[in-house]
Each structure stands twice: as structure tokens, then as C-alpha cells.
Recover the amino acids of this structure.
């Protein structure tokens, strides 16, 4: 029988092939390379079969989610930012933030353009 502490240190999560190491790796990804644009658009960050960037989709975040779920006695865990409110953002700033997002060149070139309502929903969820 293992104790919770031992189970966390030796968690059964196995990273996909190519990421094996005696200790968990730290994988940071501001850019993830895909075989094609179609492959990038076909990925589903929610199923943990493919990588994205940031808090959703690196071997490091998958392992952290698994270990947190184990620690808390849960089945799953999803990492999210600690909240915009912790950085002093208030709902009164949302329109200005959304204006900036809509004007950003990344918004115009995204394969999945977001609407003002999409940005508001993301901001609301991040508070």
C-alpha cells in the first residue's frame, strides 16, 4: 500500500512517447508545431491527446493536473489562471480589454475568430 505522498511522487501518469525521463520534465510552449494547418485545427485541447500551449496542453500541465486530482481525491483536474481579479482587473475594464483584443492582429488572423461576446465570456470566467 502506498501513502498519498508516495503516490504523488510516483504518480502513474506517463507522458506520450518521446517525453520519457526519470523525473518529470518541465515543458514550456509558446509555440507548438503541427504537421499541417488542418492538424492544428483538428486538435481538441480538452481530450489531452494533443498539445497546445500555456495552461492547456503540455506534458507538464497534464502531469500537474493528474497529481492535483490525486492529492484532492478527484478524478480530473483542469488548470485555469488564478484570476484576473488578483491582478486588479475589474469588470469595468472589460470593454477596453475587448476593444484591444478585437484590434489586435492576432484576432484578425485567427483560424477561429472570437466575437465580443466570446471575449466577455472568457473574461467573466477568468475573474
Amino acid at each position: 500500500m502506498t501513502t498519498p505522498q508516495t503516490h504523488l511522487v510516483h504518480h502513474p501518469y506517463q507522458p506520450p512517447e518521446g517525453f520519457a525521463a526519470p523525473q518529470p520534465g518541465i515543458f514550456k510552449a509558446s509555440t507548438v508545431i503541427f504537421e499541417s494547418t488542418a492538424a492544428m485545427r483538428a486538435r481538441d485541447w480538452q481530450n489531452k491527446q494533443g498539445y497546445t500551449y500555456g495552461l492547456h496542453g503540455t506534458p507538464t500541465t497534464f502531469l500537474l493536473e493528474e497529481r492535483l486530482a490525486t492529492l484532492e481525491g478527484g478524478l480530473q483536474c483542469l488548470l485555469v489562471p488564478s484570476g484576473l481579479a488578483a491582478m486588479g482587473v475589474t469588470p469595468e475594464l472589460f470593454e477596453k480589454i475587448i476593444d484591444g483584443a478585437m484590434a489586435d492582429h492576432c484576432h484578425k488572423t485567427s483560424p477561429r475568430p472570437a466575437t465580443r461576446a466570446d471575449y466577455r465570456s472568457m473574461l467573466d470566467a477568468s475573474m
User: Anything to note?
Assistant: The mean pLDDT is 78. The helical segments are 4-9, 37-42, 59-72, 94-103, 105-109, 116-125. The radius of gyration is 18 Å. Residues 24 and 39 are 27 Å apart (CA to CA).
